[in-house]
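Repro:
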Amino acid sequence: PATLTRSTRGVTAASIEHGGSKQSAFEVIALEAQVALPNGQTLDNCLAVLETPVDGGDALTHYYVQNVGKVAVQGPDGWLYRLVEFRGGGHHAD
């Protein structure tokens, strides 16, 4: 597993929101960001990653939650999407 810190940077394939075929620069901008979901729930301790396409275009901020994955993407004009609802996983007795 990688160790991420604020300002960790890299260049790799663009996200699906940018088509996935070109290159984007990614930078960790926050380790404890918050995302307010449409249902009023707030997700804390989100990893926020800024994506900037190498060949130009709008920057996007991707938000991730550990053990869940990507929960939101925000562009210059607002949210592209946000998780509608989050329910913490439980263990089921068999």
